[in-house]
From TrEMBL:
This is Damage-inducible protein DinB. Residues 27-162 form the DinB-like domain. It holds the Pfam family DinB_2. It comes from Fictibacillus phosphorivorans.
Length: 170
């Protein structure tokens, strides 16, 4: 069965970053790479903001975790045939309410690993035909297979931002 990749235009930024290949392997590789990179950073560096009004590295990682939780819920709902239109969310309000800066990076990475492993287990549990199911989230049609790509691409997008804006040598 051919997978269906249906998603809103604003997700193209994420989807285009994802390499071709097995999505589970890509997600596992990303998990190892992100944990490896972030584990080397000091708590001071993780609290750094590259500009006023921008998130800290801790907040970026917390945002990635929150978003993966939300996208995984959407993936589950659509895969199980739920016909409800799933709501959007305000990422800035979520970050503000979460107070990620009060957590250690070690703890945030534990959250990241737990959520990523749950996402991988969810994907592994899906029948192949579920990947082509389409539902509605945030007012737009989206397929299960596209949500897998969005999860991977969203994390890559933010890892790239961390590398380019927070960790780049000037």
């Amino acid at each position: 069965m051919t997978e269906t990749y249906k998603y809103a235009d604003y997700y193209k930024t994420y989807v285009k970053l994802v390499p071709k290949g097995d999505m589970v392997q890509i997600l596992e590789d990303q998990m190892r790479e992100t944990v490896g990179l972030m584990s080397m950073l000091s708590e001071e560096k993780c609290a750094h903001r590259y500009a006023a009004g921008k998130w800290s590295i801790k907040e970026v990682i917390g945002h990635v975790v929150d978003t993966e939780r939300i996208m995984s819920y959407r993936l589950l709902s659509i895969a199980r045939g739920d016909r409800v239109s799933l709501p959007g969310y305000d990422e800035n309000a979520y970050v503000e309410e979460a107070d990620f800066d009060s957590h250690s990076m070690k703890r945030l990475l534990e959250h990241f690993v737990a959520v990523r492993q749950a996402t991988i287990q969810l994907i592994n549990s899906l029948p192949k035909e579920a990947r082509s199911k389409i539902g509605t989230a945030n007012g737009h049609e989206v397929s299960v297979s596209a949500l897998m790509m969005i999860i991977a691409g969203h994390e890559l997008h933010h890892r790239n931002i961390i590398l380019e804006r927070y960790l780049a040598k000037n």
